[in-house]
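Long-time lurker, first post. I've been practising inverse folding by hand and with some scripts of my own, and I keep getting stuck on stretches where the structure tokens seem ambiguous. Below is the full token string for one chain I'm working on. Before anyone asks, I'm not after the true native sequence, just a reasonable design that respects the backbone. If someone could post their per-position residues I'd love to compare against what I wrote down in my notebook.
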């Protein structure tokens, strides 16, 4: 459902329409794309900007909510996601297994409870007359739309990306974080409370900080396990990806094991493309925004 221009039998708020008085109603979405890194897929940050007293009241009461519809024709992927109550920011991870070539993203403000006899004082009286009453609205009917944004996705070979072989997961039975190397994907298993904070931190722009706090030490542990001669299955996907990454950087795991070339701490930072510098820049930006 690609929305470019639509007609509805009642007023629907959008930036390109005159259904509402512009000084009393506004709806748009700000987009910011964060490119993929060696350990993370690309992420599209969406910030919803809704200004209308009546709609804001519906949002607080849970009678309407923000939604994002994502479609990819190449993979036949389609998903509608509802944002949490009163939340105005949404993060879309561009998973290349689900989304390739081009992705269509449609932000919506939809009815979540049937509305009977609804009125909104911001409706344009020149188009709909004074004291306009909406027809009965059902769950899923749109109140506001931001027309579809298309995002072109670069094709990448997932096998060469660390994001394809390192995953952070929740372990509700654990008190401390552990690393599982027995599968094709390295699993970093975090206790529930820590995992929840890890996920939430991504929404607030602390991705590089979490990279240093979670991914970097786990990768050092993985490299130490390899070079210390501990039993690992070199046919597993994660091993082959790391081995390939090291070779592209001009190093090999044998030389690391002999301690003739580079330490595992240094090698992990090279693999992650200087994560400490990225974290410092991220924290500087946060501090600057709070001044």
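-- Answer (accepted) --
I ran through it position by position. Result:
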């Amino acid at each position: 459902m690609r929305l470019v221009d639509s007609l509805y039998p009642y007023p629907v708020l959008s930036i390109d329409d005159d259904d509402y008085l512009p000084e009393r109603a506004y709806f748009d979405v700000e987009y910011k794309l964060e490119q993929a890194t060696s350990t993370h897929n690309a992420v599209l940050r969406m910030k919803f900007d809704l200004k209308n007293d009546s709609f804001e009241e519906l949002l607080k009461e849970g009678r309407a909510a923000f939604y994002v519809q994502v479609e990819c024709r190449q993979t036949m992927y389609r998903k509608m996601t509802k944002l949490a109550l009163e939340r105005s920011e949404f993060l879309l991870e561009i998973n290349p297994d689900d989304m390739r070539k081009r992705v269509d993203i449609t932000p919506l403000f939809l009815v979540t409870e049937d509305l009977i006899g609804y009125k909104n004082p911001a409706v344009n009286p020149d188009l709909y007359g004074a004291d306009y009453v909406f027809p009965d609205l059902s769950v899923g009917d749109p109140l506001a739309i931001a027309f579809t944004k298309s995002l072109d996705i670069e094709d990448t070979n997932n096998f060469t990306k660390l994001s394809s072989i390192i995953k952070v997961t929740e372990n509700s039975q654990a008190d401390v974080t552990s690393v599982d190397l027995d599968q094709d994907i390295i699993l970093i298993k975090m206790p529930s409370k820590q995992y929840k904070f890890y996920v939430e931190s991504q929404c607030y722009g602390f991705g590089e900080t979490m990279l240093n706090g979670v991914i970097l030490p786990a990768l050092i542990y993985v490299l130490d396990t390899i070079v210390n001669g501990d039993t690992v299955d070199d046919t597993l996907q994660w091993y082959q990806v790391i081995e390939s990454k090291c070779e592209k950087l001009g190093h090999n795991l044998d030389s690391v094991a002999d301690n003739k070339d580079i330490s595992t701490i240094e090698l992990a930072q090279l693999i992650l493309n200087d994560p400490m510098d990225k974290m410092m820049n991220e924290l500087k930006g946060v501090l600057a925004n709070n001044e």
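A couple of notes from the structure itself: The chain has two domains: 26-152, 158-290. The two ends are 42 Å apart (CA to CA). Happy to go over any region you disagree with.
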